[in-house]
Write a structure and sequence with these properties.
Largest sheet: 10 strands, antiparallel
Order of helices and strands: HHEEEEEEEEEEEE
Shape: rod-shaped
Number of strands: 12
Distance between the termini: 16 Å
Strand content: 15-25%
Oligomer: single chain
CATH topology of the largest domain: Helix Hairpins
CATH architecture of the largest domain: Orthogonal Bundle
Number of helices: 2
Number of domains: 2
Helix content: 55-70%
Structural class: alpha+beta
Length: 392
């Protein structure tokens, strides 16, 4: 139904147009800052995930280093034991060489005595014996002593050679252990170098998170500043519209029509509920009409478009129309939230039934629907149940 009065109040198009341009600039700035906020949050999350992954890698390497340290200690202990065995074996070799030297000295003494007998002692030896048997026995004894001395020297040399073989085996085993330890030390060095590298990467990831947090804070502050500027400009526009409307007493209407020609169902009534997006229990100040995205939304009554833009309070794209005074003597406004697209311009006059936008799911929304509010006055402080005024 059209508003009473053939000529709507005039509004300064130039001033409203300038202010709307400011709103567009502020909205563009907000969009940029929101993108910066989202990007900074992504960087923070990525850096946090990277830090967690790096810390897990450090834990694995620390565990490997701990195991490696045990292996190195075992090998080092084995090297120490092997060195003790080598030292003991060297002592045995030294003793065996001394035994050989002493035995060799005895053998040389014996051979010297034999030489003396051959060179000048034969007459004396013959004069000392009483018969041929004693002479033969003496010769056999001397030969036997010579054989035993030689055999003993051979046995000592063989024992020494065996000790030296054992020594070489121990030395070879020690060298193998030292090679094993050198390999373990090299691996340990590489692991500690990797650990240091990961630790440095963790520090860098933490720095990235700090920088991202600072960027988020700056972006959030910029958004809040934009919102304040947006609200201020909105206030200026509404003041212009209100001033124009106050000069025309004939701005009035007789009632509302349903803003949708068709809809699926009422998905949420007016009243207190738990917000499905925020989880907060609070007043739901309107009625939600579930409808397909893109469904046309019509002005429930004629009036001035006091707001047409993006809401900083969760309405998404929304429109507010000031209708003036109804027959009960009270002034009313209506709000249409979560639009996919706005078709009305702020500061313009619309007739009842004009298309002002299309159903969507912008702002704090879980699906396509129209959120309709009816206000007594010009602010949402005067929200009332739409069912009392709008035919549904």
């Amino acid at each position: 139904m059209a508003a009473i009065g053939s000529v709507p109040p005039a509004v300064s198009a130039a001033s409203v147009s300038d202010l709307q341009k400011q709103l567009e600039e502020i909205q563009s700035s907000m969009a940029q800052h929101r993108q910066e906020l989202a990007n900074a949050k992504k960087r923070e999350n990525a850096a946090a995930a990277l830090e967690e992954d790096l810390r897990q890698q450090v834990q694995v390497i620390q565990s490997q280093i701990s195991v490696l340290a045990g292996e190195i200690a075992q090998v080092q202990n084995a090297i120490g034991q092997k060195q003790q065995q080598i030292t003991a074996k060297q002592a045995e070799i030294d003793q065996k060489e001394l035994d050989i030297e002493n035995q060799w000295d005895d053998f040389k003494t014996f051979m010297g005595a034999m030489q003396e007998l051959r060179e000048g002692g034969s007459v004396a030896m013959l004069s000392a014996v009483t018969d041929l048997y004693q002479l033969l026995t003496f010769n056999e004894m001397m030969q036997d002593i010579s054989v035993k001395e030689t055999q003993m020297l051979d046995e000592l040399e063989a024992a020494k050679q065996e000790l030296e073989n054992d020594y070489q085996q121990l030395a070879s085993e020690k060298a193998s252990l030292e090679t094993q330890k050198a390999n373990l030390d090299a691996k340990n060095y590489q692991m500690k170098a990797k650990q240091s590298e990961l630790t440095a990467s963790i520090s860098q990831a933490q720095l990235t998170q700090e920088e991202a947090e600072a960027a988020q804070k700056a972006a959030q502050e910029a958004i809040e500043s934009d919102e304040m500027d947006y609200e201020a400009v909105q206030g200026q526009i509404q003041a212009i519209i209100s001033a124009a409307a106050s000069k025309q007493s004939e701005l009035s209407f007789t009632g509302f029509i349903c803003p949708l020609r068709s809809y699926s169902r009422i998905s949420s009534e007016y009243g207190y509920r738990t917000n499905p997006v925020t989880g907060v229990y609070k007043l739901h100040g309107g009625i939600d009409f579930a409808a397909p995205g893109g469904t046309p939304i019509y002005a429930a009554a004629s009036g001035y478009v006091s707001v047409a833009g993006w809401s900083t309070g969760g309405y998404g794209n929304y429109v507010v129309i000031y209708h003036g005074t109804m027959g009960d003597g009270k002034a009313y406004s209506t709000l249409y939230g979560h639009m996919s697209r706005i078709a009305a311009k702020q500061g313009t006059y619309v007739n009842q039934g004009d298309v002002i936008g299309y159903v969507g799911s912008t702002g704090n929304s879980t699906g396509n629907h129209l959120h309709l509010e009816v206000w007594q006055g010009k602010t949402n402080a005067g929200r009332v149940n739409p069912r009392s005024y709008v035919p549904i």
